[in-house]
Amino acid sequence: MEEEGQQHKGRTLTDQERYRILARLHATLSWVGVRIPEECNIDGERIRLRDLVDRFVFDDEIDDQERAEVQDLIDKLEDRAEILEEELEVEDMTLEEAEKLLARTIGLIRAVDELKHLEDEDEWAAKHSKVMAQVDDAKRWHEFTRRVYHRDEYY
């Protein structure tokens, strides 16, 4: 396995690998478990993204000016994520570089998701419930297939 990893190191990403990377990016729950990047470069300015998101998310009261800041940040993060996705689609890179870029892109998507729930709590709660229902469905399906295909009496 380690030898296989050495073969891929420094080699340009294949079309099949690129397809899998992009599929992971577009997966429904791609951002689950991914950390928001510590820092991010937005409009040539380095911002402490995780601290900024935490400040907005955990602040009990957000005034209109802060809501405008949140929306501006959401727009900029979405634009940046689109740029990174385009790089994943067209740029020559190694698998290792693509994995890092994927993690960074998904981290930005996670930050956007965290910030969007500040816009309309009811709408966010409805979307969150839908995603969690999908997670529950996937868990039930996984458990069902595990039981069906791992029973001794079926073999």
What does this structure look like?
It is a single chain. With 155 residues, the chain is mainly alpha-helical. The protein has 2 domains: 109 residues, no CATH class; 35 residues. The protein has 6 helices and 2 strands. A two-stranded antiparallel ribbon has the order 1-2. Helix 2 packs parallel to helix 5 and helix 4 packs antiparallel against helix 5. The longest helix has 29 residues. It is flat, with a radius of gyration of 19 Å. The relative contact order is 0.14.
Task: Please estimate the helix content.
Answer: 55-70%
Class per helix and strand makeup: mainly alpha
Separation, N- and C-terminal Cα atoms: 30 Å
- Rg over alpha carbons: 19 Å
User: What is the helix/strand order?
Assistant: HHEEHHHH
Principal-axis shape: flat
Overall number of domains: 2
Major β-sheet profile: 2 strands, antiparallel
Summarize model confidence as the mean pLDDT: 82
List the helices and strands and how they pair.
Blueprint: H1 2-8, H2 15-26, E1 40-42, E2 45-47, H3 49-58, H4 64-90, H5 95-116, H6 121-149
Antiparallel strand pairs: 1-2
Helix pairs in contact: 2-5, 4-5
Outline:
The protein is mostly helical and 155 residues long. It has six helices and two strands; from the N terminus they run ααββαααα. Helix 2 (15-26) runs parallel beside helix 5.
